[in-house]
Specification:
With about 350 residues, this protein is an alpha/beta fold. About 40% of the residues lie in helices and about 10% in strands. It is built from 11 helices and 11 strands. Helix 4 runs antiparallel to helix 5.
């Protein structure tokens, strides 16, 4: 495509400019642009320049994913240099432009998203900054740098094969689908063709941004407040089982897995792990109660101690007959969750499952 078309500036009403490359785009620069425009006040509403022309990039206030420079003092954030090896704190995945923008601007993004706008070096900001990188941004860094989730050689050596296709639906693939198909008609006018490509990038940046914003909203407004709820329940766990194997979330359920694993880790090796978590289905006095098994890891389907095999797949009166406990609602066929009409019934089920 003619370079003069690539030099066209897309104006969004801001005085400052963000530069990135034109052509085929990826999730990392799409997210980098979104984070800057939507979460960094200095770049709110900034103009976007998509080009590989060094002279035009030099005029930009900030440049991401192009230019061959990583110089934070000059707001240059490219990762394609042969010598580039920067990673997030205590991680091994090399950063992409998304990770670079996040590592330099992310604490400010998190701080401004919290109700009390705490200092960027506060513990709560650091907690969410690390969590959001682990759960969202790192996947984009790995995708753009060609790093697989698993070591393919180790999987092959162990004889492990995929059981089914996941449809290729990852954050990176989601953005990639906004690129034009190989056989899509392209306007003959270079300016029109570039405008069409820019429009696709804008859609992609908005789409990945929506997912990032949902994650940010969840971790600041739901996940972080849940820590206090889970910590209170964790401290009281031996009220229900002398060994501390049952955790009860009173009044209302809250996201508990991440916080439980962290609390156990903080106590150190040798601590008795929690096997079952009990919580009401809704925050009302007449709510039914769930008994959920703690997974071995946060994204595992393997429970530390599944509910008894003899209970699985049964419900209501038949379940009562099998367990000898009244009020049974169901036990999932896979044995990772069950329910009872009352708290006392759910606790009795958990205690009997420990036998």
């Amino acid at each position: 495509m003619a370079e003069n078309a690539a030099k066209r500036i897309k104006t969004d009403g801001g005085a400052l400019t963000i530069g990135t490359h034109n052509g085929h785009f990826h999730a990392d620069e799409a997210l980098a642009v979104h984070m800057l425009r939507q979460h960094v006040p200095k770049y709110t509403g900034a103009r976007l320049v998509r080009t590989r022309d060094p002279a035009l990039l030099d005029t930009c206030d900030i440049v991401v994913d192009v230019g061959g420079e990583y110089e934070p003092a000059r707001d240059r954030y490219d990762h394609h240099q042969r010598t580039f090896t920067t990673t997030f704190t205590d991680h091994q995945t090399k950063l992409s432009s998304a990770g670079l923008v996040y590592i330099h601007f992310g604490k400010g993004i998190v701080s401004r998203s919290l109700p009390d706008t705490p200092a960027e070096d506060s513990d709560k900001v650091g907690l969410i900054w690390n969590k959001l990188y682990d759960s969202f941004v790192e996947a984009l860094d790995a995708h753009d740098n060609g790093i697989s989730v698993y070591d393919s050689d180790a999987l092959k050596a162990a004889g492990i094969e995929k059981r089914f296709s996941n449809g290729g639906f990852t954050l990176g693939a989601m953005v990639g689908r906004f690129n034009g198909n190989w056989n899509d008609p392209v306007p003959s006018d270079p300016v029109a063709a570039q405008a069409e490509e820019d429009g696709r990038f804008e859609q992609a940046s908005q789409r990945i941004g929506e997912e990032f914003d949902r994650a940010l909203d969840y971790y600041t407004k739901a996940w972080l407040p849940a820590r206090d709820v889970v910590e209170t329940a964790y401290k009281a766990r031996k009220e229900y089982d002398a060994e501390g194997r049952i955790l009860v979330l009173k009044g209302q359920s809250a996201p508990w897995k991440d916080h439980l694993y962290t609390l156990e880790e903080e106590e150190g090796e040798g601590v008795q792990k929690v096997f079952y978590v009990l919580y009401p289905e809704k925050p009302t006095p007449d709510a039914k109660w769930r008994v959920q098994c703690v997974p071995e890891t946060g994204d595992s389907f393997q429970s530390r101690k599944p509910l008894p095999e003899a209970w699985r797949g049964f419900r209501d009166e038949k379940l009562d007959e099998i367990t000898g406990i009244q009020g049974g609602v169901f036990i999932h066929a896979a044995g990772f969750i069950g329910g009872n009409k009352t708290f006392d019934g759910a606790l009795a089920m958990a205690k009997k499952a420990l036998e």
